[in-house]
Amino acid sequence: MASAKTLRKLFVLFLSALMVLSLAACAGNTESAPSDSDNSAPSSEQSSSEGSEAAGDNASEETEGGTSSDNKILVAYFSHTGENYNVGVIEKGNTHIIADMIAEETGADLFEIATVNPYPDTYDECRDVAKQEQNDNARPEIIGPPANLDQYDTIFIGYPIWCGDLPMAVYTFLESYDFSGKTVIPFNTHEGSGQANTKSSIEGACPGATVLDGLAIRGSVAQNEQDEAKADVIEWLDELRYTN
Ligand SMILES: Cc1cc2nc3c(=O)[nH]c(=O)nc-3n(C[C@H](O)[C@H](O)[C@H](O)COP(=O)(O)O)c2cc1C
To answer: Alpha carbon 42 to chain centroid distance?
Structure first.
């Protein structure tokens, strides 16, 4: 008879398979819609340390930046509440939780990227809308305008991975401003895709900006293991030299 340990392992495997199948449902019918399989999903360990280590490569350039008084920082983020993947119904989005941590540590201003038409609360409906927007290469209208972006030298940009890419509303935000000469620092939450190819997507949408390597955190860790998430955030910001 199988031991309790073996049964537990089998159960975890079963849950993981369910997760992959459900996220794979994001894959659209057109070639333009990225799917999880387009962005082979790194593990959470890979993605977090990838963010931290890679960020270190750029750290020397940021020595003068960080939180000095002449470097104004904005944390702009998109985040979804309601029924979310792997965490049930949530009142504060996973990315929002990380955005607050970054703002607290850096003294940055916060801006929420919210759409004029809210996304459905239920996961399946939200995924269908997200998938359709990707297929259409849509730019959903966002509520704005954000604070005068010109005053910020550094913009942290936060988002969940949606169907292997940025939510389309984040493209709306990025394409609404001239980020040239600014430092853009991505961070994201996910349930298996890590950062996917979102650094390249952001570079494409922000010509002339310096886009640093970002930090990826599991949404379930952001939501349910906030001490662990905060430690990752602080370590990453330290390497970037962006802590107060
Ligand atoms: C519409 C939708 C699509 C998603 N697609 C992916 C995906 O392709 N890869 C992945 O790792 N996670 C995916 N997720 C999970 C989210 O990235 C994850 O739950 C994230 O932490 C949500 O953050 P938020 O609460 O800030 O919106 C998806 C979630 C939703 C709602």
So the answer is: 14
Q: How far apart are CA 181 and CA 131, in angstroms?
A: 33
CA of residue 131 to ligand 1 center, whole Å: 12
Determine if ligand 1 sits within 6 Å of the CB of residue 165: no
Residue pair 33/131 in contact (Cβ under 8 Å)? The answer is: yes
pLDDT digits (tens, 9 = 90+) for 70-106: 789 999 999 999 998 888 889 999 999 999 999 999 9
Whole-prediction pTM = 0.81
Q: Which ligand 1 atom sits nearest the alpha carbon of residue 123?
A: 31
Atom of ligand 1 lying closest to residue 192 CA:
11
State the Cα–Cα distance between residues 160 and 81, nearest whole angstrom: 11
Angle at 156 between CA 175 and CA 171, to 5 degrees: 25
Domains in the chain, please, with CATH?
A: 4-240 (3.40.50.360)
Tokens of 2: 């199988």
From atom 28 of ligand 1, which residue's Cα is the shortest distance away? 162
